[in-house]
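Sample 3 of the quickstart, ligand adenosine-5'-triphosphate:
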Amino acid sequence: MSGERQGFVVTGGLALLAGAGRVIAPLSVQHAVDADLDPATVVRAVAVGAGAVLVAGTASILLNRRLHDQIGRRLAGMRRAGLRRVHDMAASTADRLPSADLTARLTSDLDQVTTFAQGGGIQFLTNAAQLVIATGIMLAYSWQLAVPVLVLAAAAFAVMLGMQRVIARRYGRARRDLAELQGTVTEAVLGAPVIRSTGTGDRTRAKLDAAVDRARDSLVRTLAPLHTNNALGELAISTMTVTVLLGGVWWALSGDPDRLTAGQVVAMVFLVSFFVRPLQFLVQSLGEAQNALTGWRRALELITTPSAEVHDGVTLPDGPVDVRVEHVSARYGTGPLVLHDVTVCIRPGEHVAVVGRTGSGKSTFAKLLTRRLEPATGAILLNGVPLDRLTDASLAGRVVVVPQDPFLFDDTIGRNITLGLPGATGDDALRVLHDLGLREWFADLPRGLDTPVGLRGERLSVGERQLVALARTALVDPDLVVLDEATSGVDPATDVAVQRALAVLTRGRTTVSIAHRMITAATADRVLVFAAGRLVQSGVHDALVDAPGPYADLVAAAMSR
Ligand SMILES: Nc1ncnc2c1ncn2[C@@H]1O[C@H](COP(=O)(O)OP(=O)(O)OP(=O)(O)O)[C@@H](O)[C@H]1O
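Result:
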């Protein structure tokens, strides 16, 4: 037997023991009653009953421990795998991927599974076992009394199930209203300065009040079916008890030789409640079980989404990188094409500046080069190898992106610079800062390399964050740099430092700069001009600026600012 199957058998066995232990009590009572409460039989019955309770309790504890342990381990594994997938997706896609949403969804899905499995799930198992055993004993005692009980139970089950669906629907509505309330509160808190400065406090308060009222109303609406269901359970128990009692007594009086003994009638009455309570519980927790199952399925779906990482591809051939873009067009998701039929070659060591109006497709072009977006048509080749066949491992450190606002980890400047190169030391960081002409900037730092940058680098300005990212990039010594120039928040002194560092970094290295300032375009080897998703001009600054066309217009617009 495989380990997993053996595990199921042990779990099932423990659940049966726990369920059976509870059902022994009515049997003991029956023996005691049928022996006319003979002291010896009563003592024996009590001893058996006590033993059964002990066995049921122990089985329950063992089952609890076992399930807690196994479920905990399995869910932790799923959480790890799921978060890894979210991280991979965030690193390898340019779509506006709601990674935070995915993480929140995974967390709540798995929490749902945990809550059910560790709480209701264990009870679900023992109650199911109890239901099966109680049914078996009732049928063994008297099918004549058991059948009406089962018919009544089936009817009660059907009604309770229908009611449960209503409850689930109303709970769903309540959950949506609560989420909306949460969203409204978050918006009001985050937008507080805007709300105050625009004098729209009253409107916000009214919106908040309405959201609170909606959430309260929909929560209240769940109560009526909930109470009805509980009442239905009680009604079912009473009806069945009366049926068994009246039926048993009437039968006893009929003088039928097969009639039940007094003890058996009493035991049947007990069994009815041992039968209906679990039924009620099962119906009530069916919704939770369904939610848990949906959560489990959604988490699995996320975990098994194929990874975009390339492990078994080709290694990027050594040396400076040449880039060939052949008839490439691109789109986001299922949206329209935002880049059309772009063809361009970038020589090894060439510094190309990409310019164009906002929305013209510059960043999309950069994302394509760094494999954060797949071309819809056409191909991109690095050193003659299609980009989608290059392994992630061979691209790491050789193709590097410097975003507009680089991400820094909550650590020191030194460690943020050295993190890309395993084994790099503070001396390496100092050397690279020196090479990039950043010693002066560095000298002004309060604690040198040990200066903490804060969460996401918030203690540094955008320009300074770019300086750290440029130093990090220079230390890794990549063959292709794709740089998105910062558009704002860079003071003149830092700007000079950035330009100086850039000049060193791009020297002899294939570089694609998304240039937001004309100075960057003017100092690049070549300028690519994009307009409405098309590459409309390509050439050196001096030649383009003198010819009438989009580039000359852009330069003129920049000068008139
Ligand atoms: N993640 C995305 N999902 C959907 N559409 C996008 C996404 N990113 C960009 N776009 C769309 O693609 C087009 C090109 O955008 P892109 O960001 O490449 O332009 P850009 O020239 O870099 O602009 P900017 O200078 O403002 O950054 C635009 O119409 C934009 O709305």
